[in-house]
Amino acid sequence: TTPAFWRVADRKRLYMADLESAIMYTLRVEAARFLFLDREHLFTLKQYVAILVKYFPGRLIVMNYLRNLDHWLRPRTNVSNSEWEEALRNKKELPYAWLPETPTWVGCQGSKSEYRGYPCSLWTLFHLLTVQEAVASPRFTSSSEVLPTMRRYVHYFFGCRECADHFEGMAAESMHRVKSKDGAVLWLWSRHNRVNARLAGTKSDDPKFPKIQWPPHALCWSCQLIINGRRMWDERAVLRFLKSHFSRRNIDMAYVT
Ligand code: FAD
Question: CA-to-CA distance for 57 and 46, rounded, in angstroms?
Fold first, then answer.
């Protein structure tokens, strides 16, 4: 169905509403699907919430919610679905804490309800987190903690199992070669482009938002070079662009409630 209300979005910007909706969906929907969170799921969820607390450039009210949850999760060794739902209702150790209960898609709004939305926002969230991690410690080349967390999250929780299998295939093939945080930013960007190439023109492609090799020239004119008639990425320019696109100051607060 076509959305009744169209939220105007600028493709040059990120939207806090999408990012908060992604977090809401991971915690309130995907992590809440399990009757019981076993060791592996719990370990993954702890890592995921910990990297959100560390790197998500969120509003104070949302960061307080995440800190509460992180604090609650840390000592747990097993968690039932009802305990998880109870924890999400929020004990408010830190007051002024909140996370949306329903999603609002802005930059990720699809032309029909079956398009875009959550998967779009999950990509956006993890690109943002890899960049925030890289800019938080630019001088150190130590490896990323965000990328392996995304790998585990997708493997254990992402509802699209076919997507999770494809992603795990790419991760198993080359993620071990990523040695730095900048490398993690570029790995995720290049693998996302592979997914875009594979999905272009398929039924999951929103005709109003066709899958392209990203960023297009209009977003970054210096990211692509023509060498001997072939179009190539200039990875240094791409990295610079990604650090600016997925920066805190590029997050638009439109439609946050
Ligand atoms: P998305 O591809 O979701 O991208 C979201 C936004 O990110 C874009 O609007 C753009 O602003 C930006 N962006 C685009 N490309 C890049 C890039 N290379 N680097 C940084 N930012 C970029 N669907 C399937 O049908 N089969 C699959 O196997 C599959 N695997 C997936 C694996 C993962 C881990 C995820 C999160 C999703 C997967 N999906 C898969 C869903 C699919 O990739 C899209 O998310 C979905 O079709 C919505 O597409 P979209 O047009 O909103 O843009």
Answer: 18
Domain check: are 36 and 126 in the same one? no
User: What does residue 79 show for φ and ψ, rounded to 5 degrees?
Assistant: -140, 125
**What is the dihedral sign for C-alpha 71, 171, 157, 108?**
positive
Q: Is 123 in the pocket of ligand 1 (CB under 6 A)?
A: yes
Q: Measured over all CA atoms, what is the biggest interatomic distance in the chain, rounded to whole angstroms?
A: 61
Q: Specify whether 131 is located in the same domain as 245.
A: yes
Compute the distance between CA of residue 105 and CA of residue 150 in angstroms, rounded to an integer: 21
Query: Ligand 1, atom 35: nearest CA belongs to which residue?
Result: 119
Mean pLDDT of the chain: 94
Quick check: 197 pLDDT over 90?
A: yes
Q: Is 81 in the pocket of ligand 1 (CB under 6 A)?
A: no
pLDDT tens per residue, range 76-104: 999 999 999 999 997 666 679 999 999 99
Q: Which structural domain range is residue 157 located in?
A: 118-252
Of 159, 164, 223, which is closest to residue 189 (Cα–Cα)? 223
192 CA: nearest ligand 1 atom: 18
Return the structure tokens found at 117: 């939305």
| ipTM exceeding the 0.85 mark | yes
